[in-house]
């Protein structure tokens, strides 16, 4: 025993000394930049965070429900702490600041101009290679690659995202949502998350690789030559992705998560079969048309085949091999399924919580259906009807502002990089910008939540109000003033055009690495809600506490394994409605009163109980309390929240 203790103690001392030295070095580098900085013993991107992240999330679950974010000492040790923090760190340290830790330093920005700058300077701020390796279970892809490799990938992956793909998404979403609505109408209440995830997988299976899945038990049976059905393989990969990415295959196979390994292998086998079928179709000269026209896999193979045909002798290869096709199809799936499904879940909960807002969306759906029927169409079409959804997309953008499903956009500096910031208090005698230089290998995180909750960019940022997106200047629009639905800038049926200042809404990112699937996702969103709300209204299930749900969704998340995940499932139900687009839609003011009414502080015995529960980890809890914010800060928090005009929602029970 003693023989083991000595080397262990020695190792601990060496590691600790090394970390102290590294912290000192990082601090020196931070000082040189001239930016404000703070310390953290562990930062969210380092390996230790795999430990601190779940531990702190578990410890502070109930604390977070109070609505004042993470305790200061803990926040930077939590992966994607930004959602719960809602920009508080930036109020404290400034729009741009550094977090210094023994593992290096990270620059966080909630400054829209810098965020935009980072997104557009593709070569100056690159994706961190070691993190990108994590999203390559099937090899490099358009999301994970950089430089010339990215140029090679984007050339073949961008063309498939045309209108044929969006049309397919539209039609398949309507079909899948039809199944869902039937199943919802047949039951008293249903769990939202599982149904929406299944719908998302089914839509992606069709639009991603041309496989139509029905909501029948048959789809769960494994076909010959397979151990799992396609749906189960997909779900297995999604569910066990962290283990698939983190563990070597030989270990995964022998671990308690070996079903993840089987799913991974099965998914690969399915994809290789699909690729072989589609390639044979292309080679046979029967045209590039798959049975499911517009799917991304076939379109990508077709683009790749064209590249091969046009390749000049001696030139470098520009077409994909099977591994590259597989890597990208998988990535389309990952990039598209989770993001869109979570957006739909957040939107469903929002509608269930805000009846008036739901009436506005239903009103638009009714009107567009009426027009379609008058023109002889039974179903809405992508070409004719999707462009008419104005309020619907304003609603989607507002959901994405309040629940930014892609929380951070992370980059690293390959070499020293200058950043230019505008001074907070400009004066004619001072320069208009101040330049700072970030050292090489400095992490840079665009804090989307920080930007979206910054009152300089979004007045009353905590208020979820689609109307701001329909105003001529969304960044200056106060949701509690005028109803802008009928301003001349947004006549009904005109395509939705967001007019925000660039950089203030980066949920889809901007610049050369912006989302390829933006229109794909908006088409899925609109088709889903148009189908559900045509005849139904979404309600919270019986006995579900409205205040608790709102507080839960606004104050907590399940972290962001891939994208911001809702903190848990909510039971909802549907009720039929008759078409009732009143000429007099509810006013914005009424919606706000309604919102504030819903946000009364909940009673706090739940928190007392949870604090009692937490006390069983005795010493840990004491440490936590000692290091948490002092009481005075809670009062400050109330003041800040009140200043935001949001006391009812999260502030009132802090004292
Ligand atoms: C609400 C839905 C979605 C959101 C919020 C979203 C957001 C984003 C963001 C922020 C990025 C940039 C990430 C970065 O640079 O670090 C991105 C990239 C990307 N997205 Fe999306 N996305 C959504 C849906 C989709 C869908 C449906 C697909 C495909 C089916 C897709 C495919 C991609 C791809 C391929 C990239 C990589 C582009 C590149 O690096 O060149 N996304 N997305």
TrEMBL record:
<keyword id="KW-0472">Membrane</keyword>
<keyword id="KW-1133">Transmembrane helix</keyword>
<dbReference type="GO" id="GO:0016705">
    <property type="term" value="F:oxidoreductase activity, acting on paired donors, with incorporation or reduction of molecular oxygen"/>
</dbReference>
<dbReference type="InterPro" id="IPR002401">
    <property type="entry name" value="Cyt_P450_E_grp-I"/>
</dbReference>
<feature type="region of interest" description="Disordered">
    <location>
        <begin position="469"/>
        <end position="503"/>
    </location>
</feature>
<keyword id="KW-0408">Iron</keyword>
<dbReference type="InterPro" id="IPR001128">
    <property type="entry name" value="Cyt_P450"/>
</dbReference>
<protein>
    <recommendedName>
        <fullName>Cytochrome P450</fullName>
    </recommendedName>
</protein>
<dbReference type="Pfam" id="PF00067">
    <property type="entry name" value="p450"/>
</dbReference>
<dbReference type="InterPro" id="IPR036396">
    <property type="entry name" value="Cyt_P450_sf"/>
</dbReference>
<feature type="compositionally biased region" description="Low complexity">
    <location>
        <begin position="472"/>
        <end position="488"/>
    </location>
</feature>
<feature type="transmembrane region" description="Helical">
    <location>
        <begin position="233"/>
        <end position="252"/>
    </location>
</feature>
<dbReference type="InterPro" id="IPR017972">
    <property type="entry name" value="Cyt_P450_CS"/>
</dbReference>
<keyword id="KW-0349">Heme</keyword>
<dbReference type="GO" id="GO:0005506">
    <property type="term" value="F:iron ion binding"/>
</dbReference>
<keyword id="KW-0812">Transmembrane</keyword>
<dbReference type="GO" id="GO:0004497">
    <property type="term" value="F:monooxygenase activity"/>
</dbReference>
<keyword id="KW-0560">Oxidoreductase</keyword>
<keyword id="KW-0503">Monooxygenase</keyword>
<feature type="transmembrane region" description="Helical">
    <location>
        <begin position="6"/>
        <end position="24"/>
    </location>
</feature>
<feature type="binding site" description="axial binding residue">
    <location>
        <position position="515"/>
    </location>
    <ligand>
        <name>heme</name>
    </ligand>
</feature>
<comment type="similarity">
    <text>Belongs to the cytochrome P450 family.</text>
</comment>
<dbReference type="GO" id="GO:0020037">
    <property type="term" value="F:heme binding"/>
</dbReference>
<keyword id="KW-0479">Metal-binding</keyword>
<dbReference type="InterPro" id="IPR050121">
    <property type="entry name" value="Cytochrome_P450_monoxygenase"/>
</dbReference>
